[in-house]
Each structure stands twice: as structure tokens, then as C-alpha cells.
Amino acid sequence: MIWDSVPWKNDLARFAKALDKRKAQLRWTQVSSARLEQEFFFSAFAIRKLIEAKKLSDEVLKVTIKANEHKPVGRLVDLMNWHKIDKLYDLERHTTRHFLLEAYCNQIIHSFIFIPVLQ
């Protein structure tokens, strides 16, 4: 149980600042890609912990996140084919989904693969 939310929220602010810097990043290594995944995961985990501890306002709980969803076109993703994402999903077309903050965090926490799309 989280008694004092300040350290958790301070870490979230630190992760947000790091993620914001990544938008301008030009060179991506395995280490920087791993750090990006960690920052996303740790942020999602911290948000969900704060939600479960009732340390976020109702206004924050109502925040929706817009995301693109790509439909699978063949076999399900598994440990042997996860790197063939372009063959398993229709990356040319997508639908837009809106997630409540908690549901979005759950998607990140329970994701099988993490492949960022940089635009």
C-alpha cells in the first residue's frame, strides 16, 4: 500500500521528463530502446499503483489515451515469431481506440512485446 504518494509522483515526473526527451532522440541503441521500454513500463506500473491506492483524483482517472490498433492477419504472436510483427499485423491500416488511463496502463504492463513506432 502506498502511504505517501509524493515519491511515486516524483518518479513519474522524472519518467515523463525522460520520455519527453526521447521524442527528439535521433540515435537509438539497444540500451536506449530498453530504457524507453523501462520508462513506459515503470510509469504504467506507478500509475496503476497510485490508482489502486486511491492517490489520484477522479479527474485523472477519467483521462483517456488515444492509441492506434492494428489487426492481426495471421498466427498469434509468440516467443518464436514476435520479431516478425510486420507479417503478423496489418501495419498499413489501423483503427483508433480510446482507453481510460487504468486500462491503458494494464495494456502496457501485460504487453507481450514492446516495439515503439517513431514518427
Major pleated sheet: 2 strands, antiparallel
The parts where pLDDT drops under 50 for at least 5 residues are: none
Bulk shape: globular
Give the termini separation.
Answer: 38 Å
Structure description:
- This protein has 5 helices and 2 strands; from the N terminus they run H-H-H-E-H-E-H.
- The protein has 119 residues and is mostly helical.
- The chain has one domain.
- Helix 1 runs antiparallel to helix 2.
- The longest helix has 23 residues.
Write the SSE topology.
Layout: H1 6-22, H2 30-52, H3 58-61, E1 64-69, H4 85-88, E2 95-100, H5 101-109
Antiparallel strand pairs: 1-2
Helix pairs in contact: 1-2, 2-5
Task: Give me a quick take on this structure.
The chain has helices at about 5-20, 30-50, 60, 85-90, 100-110, and strands spanning about 65-70, 95-100.
Key structural traits:
globular; 48% helix; 5 helices; mainly alpha; single chain; two-stranded antiparallel sheet
